[in-house]
Amino acid sequence: MSKILLIKPRFLIPNFLQITHPMGLMYIGTVLKGKGHDPKIHDCASDYKNLKILTRIIGDWKPDFIGISLIATELEQTKEIMKVIRHILPNVPVIFGGPWPSANPEEAIRTFGADFVVMGEGELIFTKLIDILNKGLSTDSISGTASIVKSEVKINPGHYLTEEELNALPFPAWELLDHKLYAKSTSFACVGSRPYMTIVTSRGCPFKCVYCHQTMGKVFRKRSVQSVLSEMEELRFRHGFKEFEIIDDCFNLDSERVRAILTGIRDRLGDVKLHFPNALRADMLEPEDMFLFKQAGTVSVNFAIETSSPRLQKMIHKNLNIDKAVFAINAAVKAGILSNGFFMIGFPTETYEEAYATVEFAVRSALHRAYFFIVTPFAGTELAEMAGQNINVAVNPRKMTYFYTSTLNISAMSDRELQKVFRLAYIRFYLYPKRLFKLTAYHPQIFSLLRSAFFLLIRILSPIRCNA
Ligand code: B12
Ligand code: SF4
What we know:
Elements: E1 3-8, H1 23-34, E2 38-43, H2 52-61, E3 65-69, H3 75-88, E4 94-97, H4 99-103, H5 105-110, E5 116-118, H6 123-135, E6 145-149, E7 152-156, H7 163-168, H8 179-183, E8 197-199, E9 202-203, E10 221-222, H9 225-238, E11 243-246, H10 255-269, E12 273-280, H11 289-295, E13 298-306, H12 310-315, H13 322-334, E14 338-345, H14 352-364, E15 369-374, H15 382-387, H16 391-394, H17 415-430, H18 433-442, H19 446-461
Parallel strand pairs: 1-2, 1-3, 3-4, 4-5, 8-11, 11-12, 12-13, 13-14, 14-15
Antiparallel strand pairs: 5-6, 6-7, 9-10
Helix pairs in contact: 1-6, 2-3, 9-10, 10-11, 14-17, 17-19
This protein binds cobalamin and iron/sulfur cluster.
């Protein structure tokens, strides 16, 4: 049995904790436990400023292995975490996993000092790696890993879990988390802090949006309806959770399955609240589906529209049918669901007129809330290639905030035009009396709404650092 510390670095803005349960680590934790290991999860949101708790855990508990799960924005804190680890336990094997290392294994090893990278879904590969390390066997050729072999980074491609393997996984290790941390933080759904649990019912997405890291692969793999409902029943009746956030990349790809899950929730779970913050594919929803969402307890949904321009929809390979999306939004609002939209401004070749048309689309829509983001070409995406820059240098994590991840202007707009349309977007959308009234009436927590308004102001007022 090995003691394995699983660390979740964070990227936060002061006093604004928007975090999600570290699902990847909970899945890895449950498999490790099944193999007789002793895993512990540490979420750095709890000691974000000084990593004091983490330092104590590493010093006192002395794990045999350390795993770190990170996305692109968490690189800066990962550097600090690595300093703490190497200071206290210089020789402990450190394994990186998650979206960023999976896309950048060489940099994870050379620049950040990981001993191994597990690429893609880690449940089976990580457990195998630990087993091989414990037996003292060669780690040079384990598929799905990267490591230094003869002074070179050797990458051994892996494969995604099959649907059968996905369904065979035990439920996530909820017991490894400090639930109070998530209950007091702002969740992905942005409806205020309260106890809730996150659920992943499928993995992978067949679409090919150019800005997406596509970390879960192109094959949609679904958990069985029975498995999803059993997980929710266990959370509801054994652990007392009444609120759930479903964060699949494409929850509504298979309409029949969606209807079966929602009907099951309605009939078997009783009085629960559901949120779909990682967005539903709006043009694949029949308007009448939204009533079933509501009957099952849905409080909020997000729709990722990104742009109203058919030209740009094609260019970014999202190909969203805007007319159908409008039907879905209207149906969701009519059903009494808090409906939010995600929009992106500043795609390559995007003109001021196109960006402004997207803003107008949002303003005229029935959406309660809209989030506008400036397009960020992250390394490893097709968008980064389209933007044609040395993105690892140009997108500087030190200069990012949650709202302004982009430090680049890759559009056809001047920096001034981009800033203008971005600010106008928020002002035009929210300074609309009818919308403000509806938003206040629908929003589940007024305090959280006021806090969002405060951060909205920061968003509008702070300077955007283009080409910094
Ligand atoms: C929840 C979520 C959020 C939450 C929480 C983010 C966080 N810091 O944890 C919120 C809403 C805050 C968020 C925000 C953003 N997000 Co986000 N988000 C997600 C989402 C939808 C789900 C993550 C999840 O739980 N997945 C399910 C679990 C099971 O998968 P997993 O975590 O990847 O874990 C598996 C493997 O990666 C691996 N693994 C993971 N960790 C480890 C560790 C070890 C040791 C090992 C061995 C293996 C391993 O094994 C796990 C099990 O199979 C993903 C999309 C996705 N499908 O994953 C995007 C995603 C992670 N987000 C992404 C991005 C870009 C962002 C933003 C930058 C967006 C923006 N504003 O521009 C912001 C950043 C905000 C911030 N504060 O850092 C990208 C990350 C790309 C990258 N290369 O880093 C993703 C992948 C979306 C995408 N497809 O492009 N996000
Ligand atoms: S629909 Fe979402 S998960 Fe799928 S490719 Fe587009 S951004 Fe990525």
